[in-house]
Design brief:
Strand content: 5-15%
Strand order of the largest sheet: 2-4-5-7-6
Structural class: alpha/beta
Number of strands: 12
Helix content: 55-70%
Shape: elongated
Distance between the termini: 79 Å
Length: about 900
């Protein structure tokens, strides 16, 4: 098998041509005269088309929003899956997979019928030829197919203009003898609704654009303009053709051409219609060919459906659509109404669910405008769906008898396919909800009941109900059994996680002891005099590796605590812009070392003082900035942008933090799993020393604990942009800086006596060396009991400070501290006690304070921090 060729993506003109071609088709030549004018008249048709355009513009805005807020390029399936899971995505894709081949079959069959009517020759193979030709054209290279589509659409427009010129030369006067009014029989509102209710399948072209997002060779921001332009021109074509049919009193453009211009007029219209039909078929193949591969890649359909040919186009999916369209074409030669009805229902489902997904996305992002538009789109689909499915206003629109039967059968087949899919793909997320099964059951039940009311065929009706109930039963039983199994597996997994987390917690704690020796002795060695440059270089590298190792140990500890639910936030009052500036100062050396440009901007913050966990906010920001520094080559640019969004409410401020770089970027596939534990994308441009692979997973977990969201946009070679959204409680009082404790690199504690309580010999040796260099006199104790006895045997004030380890035999640090505090002041009960331990979390500090400790020093020992804290009590 040859290697797929590189995709040359679609240009704006190509995408516009696909949307426009799918909106025209044969409908523009037949529908106004056969459906619009008899019920609505020319005035009702004009108003109905105008209202339809307004409705379509709402859905264009919704589709455009979804295109620009989702990184995936798989259209509706990806949007719905991300918001509501794979089950709902399957439900939408199932009906969309019928609508596209139905629309293809309708256009091809209608064109074949027209030729048969005017030339009295059976052109049955012609409709199949159109379907196969469009299918073959769609599996060409992407840009080639786009160019062919553009040529077909331009040929259609040229044919339309030629026809208008020919009529003009024939001195044809529009509206001559025709009143610009409503038709008899319906009220003006009913007349307009009779046109509006048909818009789902007439304007199905807007659903094709989201399916092609992964083939855009231009900015997604253009999608709205392209779809809008396609709709406006389509509406003008429909109005123009309606005007011709109303003026001549005919029900198709083919009769208009024959009556006005004779044989040559018919030929011009036929050729123009051929271009329209072929462009519509090609457009639906191009969009529909992306449905099945998206589901197949998700593991729910056979992998062969994702097969791509040498031109990197979805060959298998297109051939399956062509087969479906060919089968439907056979039925379309006998009755086309049920195809119209089912495709309308399918398009409505897609537009409705897309509206819900857009509203859900807008709720997460705080976009009030789209929340409203999403609700409007949902209400429009419900209203039009009600008019189509419920025969309350038969004069406006009424589904045929066979339409209800076809809808019931298609829903029943969907239930069978859905049951098979969840049996094969349950572990991948399918079948976790009963909603889709219930929707399919209700749809089949309602459609079958409406069919029975009209047909009075009892046995087939009972058979449909029995099969519907049977598959609902099997689906529910399977889901219930799997749900019970999942509960058992979940309990076992949680037990394994607890055991793993306990092991990791103990392991990382124990790792701090040797790391304390490595980092401590290296610090001491570097402070020595007379080091030759080579030895100093080696020691600096050992120190760097040790600190890197400690960062990895801290990551493992943090992840373990997050997984066991022991990770808690400590919210206090801080100033966000001040924290950004302090982080900027912290990374200043790294930035200068790589000759990077670092830009920070907090001007968009109106309320800077908030309640938040300072340490965890810093951790999130440092993780993002450190990654940006690491993966941005020399001379690159990094931006840290903090802004406040205009949705302040109930004492909360909404903030957006953006960290943007011009680094090596990442692929879309890797970006999708970036926040998964132990995921790293290796590149020759990266630093050879990798981290634990937990940094971004921890970052995401912390952001979610803060009830925020984090997103990433990236492209190889063009850098990455991380966007974090937070919501923090606002503080009324101004507080601009947090005063940090001053750490001294060297302190003189001459004459001070320290009691060092530590069971590990190496840790005692390191601490002794540090303390003696500062002039202290140091006594040692191997556990808390020995320390307590030594305190009791001395006078009050004999020891100026106690450094107390926590985990020790005989008596641990907490017990020893409580026992010392229980002594009288004359016995030394008031001596300052500092914890010096590998137990370095917030609750460890709080537990030490509760026992009577005055401070906390984490291992491995940071010498300046340790000396600075000691100075508070010794000076």
């Amino acid at each position: 098998m040859g290697k797929p060729k590189e995709i040359k993506k679609l240009r704006p003109l190509h995408v516009w041509a696909i949307a426009f071609g799918c909106m025209i088709g044969m409908g523009a030549f037949l529908v106004p005269g056969s459906l619009f004018l008899p019920k609505a008249g020319l005035l009702g048709t004009t108003l109905g088309i105008s209202v339809s355009v307004v409705c379509i513009l709402v859905f264009i805005a919704i589709c455009h929003y979804m295109i620009n807020t989702h990184s995936e390029g798989e259209g509706t399936f990806a949007y719905v899956k991300q918001n509501y899971g794979p089950d709902s995505a399957f439900f939408c894709s199932w009906f969309l997979s019928f609508s596209y081949p139905a629309l293809i079959a309708m256009g091809a069959a209608a064109f074949s019928h027209v030729l048969e009517s005017y030339f009295h020759i059976t052109f049955f193979p012609l409709s199949l030829a159109i379907i196969l030709l469009a299918a073959l054209l769609s599996i060409c290279r992407t840009r080639v197919s786009g160019r062919i589509q553009t040529i077909l659409v331009l040929a259609f427009l040229l044919g339309t203009v030629l026809f208008v010129i020919m009529c003009w030369n024939a001195e044809f006067e529009l509206l001559s003898g025709t009143a610009f009014s409503f038709a008899d029989g319906l009220t003006p509102v009913g007349a307009v609704l009779s046109v509006v209710v048909t818009f789902p399948w007439l304007f199905a072209g807007i659903t094709t654009t989201p399916q092609l997002t992964d083939r855009f060779g231009f900015s997604r921001a253009l999608s709205r303009r392209l779809m809008t332009l396609a709709v406006v021109i389509s509406a003008l074509i429909f109005f123009l053709f309606s005007l011709y049919m109303a003026t001549t009193g005919t029900n198709s453009m083919f009769q208009v051409g024959t009556n006005l211009l004779g044989r040559k007029g018919l030929i011009v219209i036929l050729v123009t219609a051929f271009f329209a039909v072929l462009s519509a078929s090609l457009g639906f193949f191009l969009a529909g060919g992306r449905i099945f591969p998206a589901i197949s890649r998700d593991g729910s359909l056979p992998k062969w459906l994702a097969y791509r040919g040498k031109a990197n186009t979805p060959v298998a999916a297109v051939l399956l659509l062509a087969l479906a369209a060919s089968v439907l074409d056979f039925f379309a030669h006998y009755s086309v109404n049920w195809l119209i009805d089912l495709s309308s229902v399918g398009i409505l489902i897609i537009l409705g669910v897309t509206s819900i997904a857009a509203r859900q996305t807008a709720l997460r992002k705080g976009d009030k405008g789209m929340r409203f538009l999403g609700l409007v789109g949902l209400l429009l689909t419900i209203a039009i769906g009600f008019l189509i499915l419920v025969p309350v206003f038969p004069g406006i629109y009424s589904m045929s008898e066979e339409s209800y039967l076809a809808l019931a059968v298609w829903g029943l087949i969907g239930s069978i396919v859905y049951l098979r899919m969840i049996r094969l793909s349950y572990t991948k997320g399918f079948g976790r909800t009963t909603m889709v099964a219930l929707l399919l059951f209700a749809l089949v039940f309602y459609s079958a009941s409406m069919w029975y009311v009209r047909s009075r065929m009892l046995l087939p009706f009972l058979l449909l109900l029995a099969l519907n109930g049977l598959f609902m039963f099997f689906t529910y039983r399977f889901q219930s059994t799997r749900a019970e199994q999942l509960e058992v597996e979940k309990a076992l997994a949680e037990e394994r996680n607890r055991a793993k987390s306990h092991f990791l917690s103990n392991m990382t704690h124990d790792l701090r002891t040797p790391m304390n020796a490595i980092i401590g002795f290296t610090h001491l060695s570097l402070q020595g005099k007379g080091l030759d440059p080579e030895t100093e270089n080696y020691l600096n590298k050992i120190l760097s590796a040790g600190e890197h190792m400690m960062a990895m140990v801290s990551d493992v500890q943090a992840m373990s605590r997050i997984e066991t639910g022991r990770f808690e936030l400590e919210n206090r009052e801080y100033n966000l812009p001040a924290m950004i500036r302090e982080v900027e100062e912290m990374v200043e050396g790294q930035v200068k070392g790589k000759k990077l440009t670092l830009v920070t901007d907090t001007e968009g913050v109106k309320n800077g003082n908030v309640l938040c966990d300072r340490n965890q906010f810093d951790r999130v920001l440092l993780n993002l900035v450190s990654n940006a520094i690491k993966f941005t080559p020399e001379g690159g640019r990094i931006e840290i942008l903090l802004s406040q969004e205009d949705n302040r409410s109930s004492g909360y401020g909404h903030y957006r933090l953006v960290v943007k770089d011009t680094g090596i970027g990442m692929t879309k596939e890797f970006a999708a799993k970036l926040f998964v534990s132990s995921e790293q994308e290796h590149s020759s441009k990266e630093d050879s020393m990798h981290g634990s692979g937990l940094g971004m997973a921890i970052t995401k977990s912390i952001v979610e604990l803060m009830r925020g969201t984090i997103e990433v946009e990236s492209e190889p070679g063009k850098g990455s942009t991380f966007t974090v959204r937070f919501k923090f409680p606002l503080c009324l009082q101004e507080k601009t800086e947090r005063k940090e404790e001053k750490h001294e690199d060297s302190c003189d504690f001459t004459g001070k006596r320290i009691l060092l309580v530590e069971d590990n010999r190496i840790n005692r040796e390191i601490a002794m060396a540090i303390l003696k260099r500062s002039g202290c006199t140091v006594d040692e104790a191997e556990n808390g009991q020995i320390a307590l006895d030594m305190i009791k045997d001395t006078k009050a004030g004999f020891y100026d400070l106690i450094l107390m380890d926590i985990q020790m035999p005989v008596m641990d640090g907490y017990e020893a501290t409580r026992a010392i505090r229980s002594l009288s002041e004359q016995e030394g009960g008031r001596v300052p006690i500092l914890a010096m331990t590998a137990n370095a979390f917030e609750e460890d500090i709080e537990r030490g304070q509760a026992a009577g400790m005055n401070g906390h020093i984490a291992k491995p020992i940071n010498i300046p921090s340790m000396l600075g804290l000691m100075a508070r009590f010794l000076n």
